[in-house]
Fold:
Amino acid sequence: QVQLVESGGGLVQPGRSLRLSCAAFGFTLDYYALGWFRQAPGKEREGVSAISGTDGETYYSDSVKGRFTISRDNAKNTFYLEMNSLKSEDTGVYYCAVKLFPYDSFPPLVHEYNTWGQGTQVTVSS
Structure:
């Protein structure tokens, strides 16, 4: 059994912060590339952040760079997306995902990721 379980989504006012968590069950996150994706209504799923499983290199899309931070805690088998200075444009369903195959590439692409969380809604509104 392999699962990713997300938590931390919700309603937040613009300018506030939110942290999403993604806990892995049934496998170990070590050495795998980890990614966060979001999908807004009417838009395709977009890779917003990723971290390499080999050298720890990180990626952020232009829309979130400087505001979001991805991190991993291998001891907890969990990874995170810290979202600061949130904007209404950040609203969407956020998915965590893991690339189980031994290849790293940026930006993270949906078809390259194998295991997905259930998604968590983030709504940024005043």
Observations:
- The chain has a mean pLDDT of 95.
- The chain is about 0% helix and 45% strand.
